[in-house]
Give the backbone structure.
Amino acid sequence: MQKIFKTLSHLHVVVGTLFIATLYVTICNLFFAEGSFLHVSDYTVSLFGKYLCYALLALAVDLVWGYCGILSLGHGAFFTLGGYAMGMYLMRQIGDRGVYGNPDLPDFMVFLSWTELPWFWAGSSSIVWMIAMVFIGPGLLAYIFGSMAFRSRVSGVYLSIMTQAMTYALMLAFFRNEMGFGGNNGLTDFKEIAGFSLQDPHTKLSLFVITAVALGIGYWISNFIVNSKMGRVVTATRDAESRVRFVGYKPEHYKVWIFVVSAMLAGVAGALYVPQVGIINPGEFSPLNSIEMVIWVAIGGRCTLYGAIIGAIVVSYAKTRFTAIMPEAWLFALGGLFVLVTLLLPKGIAGLLPNLFDKLSIFKSAEPEMLVVKEVNDQNETKTTKAEAK
């Protein structure tokens, strides 16, 4: 048993818990009839899928904020761009089943009297194009923004303001009808994905499972990065950037690199979010959403990765409950929760969890202590034996 415990790590615990939770939801949805205490409804499956998307997004924020010290208030932009890439693909899957029955143009373009697709919609009917754009769109924006900001050595509150200004500017741009993204209505009325109806319960369950797998892969990638040599340089940059620069590294390169990876993770979260909620609009660019992402990480526990996942799920669940009971009081409750956690739990919810791995370290340290005690006992016995012999 001790050998099993010794081999456990945060990665094994998180991925194992995710696997068990996903298996439980799948079995309860498929094999227990409605009305059963154990049945998980299709609505709940989609709701859990949305929570997992938020968890992946929080993971991306923790990667740059917790380990690199970049307090990004603009990750909503990367999330929404990934969502729009998926939304464009889903709009093209509607075909002639739209309100206007045009097989080539989405309804909002027909309404605006457009006669052909804009150039940036070219290829949007291909799932390969969609997958590529989910990574390329957010990653390219992060690279351009990060290259300009980090090479100019912008940091701290100035960088946070710039990230928020970026997402606010994108929100204003996407609200305009001439941008070609549906204006304030956004993209909606989706029918199917890869030939499967989005209203089919099995499709909803499959999207939930795919989201869980994406979260597991995202956690593995993040865990690998923070434990690699490059990850240690990133952490050192967070703690003492001038010293890192003095020993020969270029911190701006590492910052850009991890910022791009984080943006891509956020883009994947956005792409998986859209088919499960059925809409993407410029409201997702709202700076308030980006601030809420930071609160998820702060409440869950910054610089832990798994704490970000916990924070996103707990706060999202609380939001679902509060907005159903007292919708006007939700923002006050969220603000109060953030203040309380900041004052009383500097390590977030993760700091309250039983520190299993510290306990496991008892096993690791027990063997050397036992060996030392054994050696001392052996020495005493030897001395006693010699004394008796004399």
